[in-house]
User: What shape does this take?
Amino acid sequence: AQTVTQSQPEMSVQEAETVTLSCTYDTSESDYYLFWYKQPPSRQMILVIRQEAYKQQNATENRFSVNFQKAAKSFSLKISDSQLGDAAMYFCAYRRWQISGTYKYIFGTGTRLKVLA
Amino acid sequence: EPEVTQTPSHQVTQMGQEVILRCVPISNHLYFYWYRQILGQKVEFLVSFYNNEISEKSEIFDDQFSVERPDGSNFTLKIRSTKLEDSAMYFCASSDRAAGYTFGSGTRLTVV
Assistant: This one.
């Protein structure tokens, strides 16, 4: 069974600095997707970035980028030029295809990011 | 940008009562899901739904839970007899085959 591990329950970063959130996963599949979701205090789940496993190039979305190491099963999120609005809980997720034809997401336990002014 | 809409945003119910959580998925999506997040814990899969039937369900999704797509737009989660431990944030999501999920903004269920 797939598992997703986020070993940092909480991280802090100074405003305008860079922070990296770690995520590792375990799978025997070769084709899959990985995601980072942001959950602010409103508890809405907001997609930050996604990575397709068959793509070697790391995904980027503005100030957000990932370091995807497929062999090491590592998928870290880098936030550059951190802003106060980045403060939130961040969840790493693995998307697994199911025989039924639907997808199932497996989430990590989350990392709470604090941004210090 | 298309959204998944969930109502109500917050519901308080007495233990033992039935609740129905409502979701309007994105109109051209065919796959629908419910997830649950107990406060302070990770998001957990409950059920997936495709072609008017459940595709997969987790151990959490016992006989107290049911899902339905009563018309062409709504997707509902019913909890027949709520327990205190059902208090959580419930997220609906929809997807097409290729894309990732779009999550709704969640319904906070409080069982008292």
Notes: The radius of gyration of chain A is 14 Å.
